[in-house]
Amino acid sequence: IVEACLARDAKKVMVGDNPGGPEHLVRPVAEAAGFLPLLEQYFVDVSKDIREVQINSALAASVPVSSAIMDADLLINVPKFKTQPLAVFTGCIKNMFGAIPGLEKARMHTVYTAPHQLVEFLIKLYSAVTPHLNIVDAITAMEGEGPSHGTPRHVGKLIAGYNGAEVDVVLGAMLGLPTEKMRFYKTMEQEGLGKPSLKDITVMGSFEPLNGFSLPTLN
Description:
The protein is an alpha/beta fold. It has helices at about 1-5, 25-35, 35-40, 65-70, 90-95, 100-110, 115-130, 165-175, 185-190; strands spanning about 15, 45, 50-55, 60-65, 75, 80-85, 90, 135-145, 150-160. Strand 3 and strand 4 form a beta hairpin.
């Protein structure tokens, strides 16, 4: 992705990560993931230099967000496809939770405990901090009780699109989720983020449902 940006004459490319938790683990996580040695000159700690962004969620009028993310001319969202007990799975919408600094994410999890609260909050956040491009890494996905106790599963796919909400619809369809089980559908339609049905979305390339994909125990 960095090489593609540079090939298109990007003047400055920044790669950021923002893991949650009480400890400041941005660089250690990047090192453990293996991309820091390759991208050291582009890496930015997006947990620093934050500012308040209005989201007008039912439980929070604003949230702290990385200034580097907000000031970027082009924002590329790169989620890892994995299960998550409150949102069912992590896709484009859920991954933008990473725009919020680590400790604040932990605090938000204590505030938004019910699934409908989390979904409403995440969609309001996504509406305020909307990526220009989404590239979902589903080469190795995670099924089961993710994101902490799941099982790696080879899927061998990259799923990309400009509209992250519609990419999430495609991901849900890959999992075989009926509409009522994908918690983003109704709220994303109310917010006007995209088409909530696979039949209304143009999918280029081969669409393959993931047979027997194990979903988390839903709260």
